[in-house]
Amino acid sequence: DAPKVPDSRGDSDGPRRGSLCDRHCAAINNVQGDLGDLGCHLHRPRVPPATSTPSCCQQHSEEVCESCVVKTTLTAENAVEANKLSNNYKFGFKKWKSHVTARPWEDRSEIVKELYSDLNVIRGSGGSTLTCGNVLYLLLFGWWLSLLYILVAAVMFITIMGAPYGRLCWDLAWYFLWPFGKVIQKVEVPKSHQACEAGVGESSALLGGPTPLRWCPRCWVGTGSWHHASTAVWLCLGYPVLVLAHGLVCVTAWLLIVLIPVAKLSARATARVLLLPPERVLIRRLRMTEVPLEGEVILCCYRAANPYYYKYAVDGINVFAVNLLPLVLVTLVLGYVDSPNHLTGSAVKFTLALLSIMPLSYYIGMAIASISAQSNFAVGAVVNATFGSITELTFYITALIKGSREGNRCYAEVVKSALTGTLVGCVLFVPGLCMVIGGIRHQEQWFNSRSAGVSSALLFLSVGGVFAPTLFSKVYGKLVCGECHNVTQNPLGHYLCHNCHFDLMDHNGTLYYSHVQPLVYTVSILLPAAYLIGLFFTLKTHTHIYDIHISDCHMPGHHHSAVVHWSRWRALVILLLSTLCMSACADLATEHISPILTNSTISQYFIGVTVLAMVPELPEIVNGIQFALQNNLSLSIEIGNCIAVQVCMLQIPILVLFTIFYPTNFTLVFSDLHVYASMFSVVLMNYIFMDGKCDYFQGTVLVMVYFILLAVYFFAPSPSGC
C-alpha cells in the first residue's frame, strides 16, 4: 500500500482515490504475476513529495488510476530486452525466458554472483567444510588425484634435479585430497623479477582469472643450468601427467554441472599453480579468525558442489545446452562414418539423434529470440514464421521422403501420430505440468483469459479444419475389412471383422480425387489464412487484450547500454548451422527408426505421440515451467497453445503443400483414435481455462488425462500397413 497521507479539507478525495488505485494495482499484480528477475513495476499514484518514493516510470503517472487498472508495466534493463519481453506477449512469436543481453552485475542475486565468482575469495567464516558435496568430491576425485600426486612426487625425487617439484607435489597431494578450507597463495617476488610478468594475464570464463600467455624462464627464481634442468624435468615428466588427470577431472565435473566448482579448481590449478616455481607456492589452512592474507590468493575453495549451477550460462547459453552440444558431433560422426553399424546399432543411433535435437532446438530458439529482439517487427515476424516450426517440419519431411522411397506407409502413420502427439501434449501436458509446478510455489495463479480465449478459438477452428477430411471420409467412404467371422453360425447373424478401414480409392479413387483431395487443399488454404487473421487481430487491431506495457526505463542509478550475447549476424549463422545439423540428425533418426518400428512390441502410435512428438518440445517445456515458477502462467499457457495452433495451421498445410511437389503416402485422413483424442483435449482445455485462474489440482487433472491417453495409445494395435 502507498504511504498514508494526512487528510486535508482542500483535497479530501486524494488519499481515498490513491488507496483505491493501490488496491487495483495489487489485484493486477496478482493477476499478472511476480516476474522476479524481469522487474515488475506498476504505475503508482502521485503523492506529496515528502512521502513519495522515486520510481523509474514517474513520467507516466498522469493517468494514474486509469493506466494502473488496465496496464501492467514491465521494466527491462535495456531496449533489446524490452523488445524481447514484448515479443513474448505477441501471438505467433517464440516465448523465450533467458536474457539475450548481458545483465548488469549489480542487478544479479547473491546466489548467481557466487556462481560466477573466482575461487580466490577468502570468506570471513566459511562454516563447516564437511558437506555431502565435499564428501562426493573425495570419493570421485580426491583419493586418486592425491595418490597420483604422490607418485609424481616420487618420480621427481628420484630424478634429484626435480626434487623441488617433488616437494611441491607432496604438498599438493594433501591439498587435493581435501582442498576445502585451504588456500594456495603466490609468494611475492623481488622487484627484479616483476618485469617478466608484464606479459602475463588473460582472463578466462572457465578459470575466472588470469592465465599465463607464455612461459618465461627468467620468471623462475634463481638462474643457472640447475634451475633450467629442474624445470625441464618437471615439464617433461611431471606436468603432462597431471595436466591429463586434471583435464579428466575438469571435463567430468563440468558434465555433472553441480560440481562445476571442482572443474574451476582443476583448471585453475593446471594453468596457474603447476606453472609456478615451487618457491613461489604457499599452501596453508585457513583459521576462523584468520586476518586477510598478504599477497595474491590463487585458490580458495569451500564447497565442491552447488545445486544452483543449473542457472550457469556461458555467453548466454545455458550450461545444459553447452554440455549437450558435443553429443551432436558424436551423433553425426557415428551416423555417417559407421553406416554399416559396426560400432553401434540402429537403436543407439536413433536415441542419440533424438537427444541431439534438444540442444539444437535450444540454439534455434535463442537465435530466433536474439534476431527478433534486435530487429523490427517485420523481420521478427518473418523469422518466427520461417524457423518457428523448423524442428518438427525437418523430421516430418525426412520421414515422409524415406517412407515414399521404401514404399512403406508406416512412416506416414508415424508422422500423423507425432502431429497428434504434439497437439495433445501442448494442450494437456505442457500447461498442466506448468500449473502443477507453479502451484507448488503459488496457491492460486491467474492468467489473461482474453488472450487465452483467442488461442482457444483458433484451436477449435484448426482442429475442426484438420479433421474435416477425416470426418468426410467416414461419412462417404466405403468400409473395407480384412477378414470377418460369423459368430452365431447364422448367415443373417453377427459378424466379427478385423483390420477394417474406410477405402477412399473405390471406383478408381473417384471419391478421393474428386471430393476428399479438393477438400484437403481447401482446408490447407483456409487454415493459414485464419492464422494470418489471428496475427493481425492480436498484433495490430486488438493489442490491448494482453494488458501489458513494456518499458526500457531503469531504476535510479541504473543506466546500462545493451551488450547482446549474440549479434544479429552471429545469431543468423548459428540459426542456419543449427538448422543444417537438425536436418542431418532428423535424417539419421528416420534412417534408424525402421528396425524399431518393425521389431518393437510397442505400438507405433505410442512411439509417435511420445518420443517423436515431445522430445523436440523439451526446451519449450522448460521455458513454460520457468514462467510458471515466476507466477507468469499466461506465457506458460501461450507456449502450449501457440505450438498447437502452429501444428494445425502451419505445419500440416506445409506438409500437404510438400506432397504436391513430392508425392508421398501422407494423406490428411487420421485414425479415429487421433480424432477423438485431439477433440477431447481441446474441449477439456477450454473448460479448465474458462475462469482465468487455476491451481495445482486443475493442472493435475490435465496431466492425468494426458497419461490416460498415452495408456490408450500404448495398448492400441499398430496401424494398418505397419
TrEMBL record:
Record's keyword terms, sorted: Antiport, Calcium, Calcium transport, Ion transport, Membrane, Phosphoprotein, Transmembrane, Transmembrane helix, Transport
Bilayer topology: Multi-pass membrane protein
Entry's localization field: Endomembrane system
Name used for this protein in its record: VNX1 protein
CC per GO annotation: endomembrane system; vacuolar membrane
Gene coding for it: Vnx1
GO BP terms in the entry: intracellular calcium ion homeostasis
InterPro entries for the chain: CaH_exchang, NaCa_Exmemb, NCX_ion-bd_dom_sf, YccF
UniProt domain Sodium/calcium exchanger membrane region: residue ranges: 348-467, 571-713
GO MF annotations, alphabetized: calcium:proton antiporter activity
A Pfam family assignment: Na_Ca_ex
Keyword Cytoplasm: no
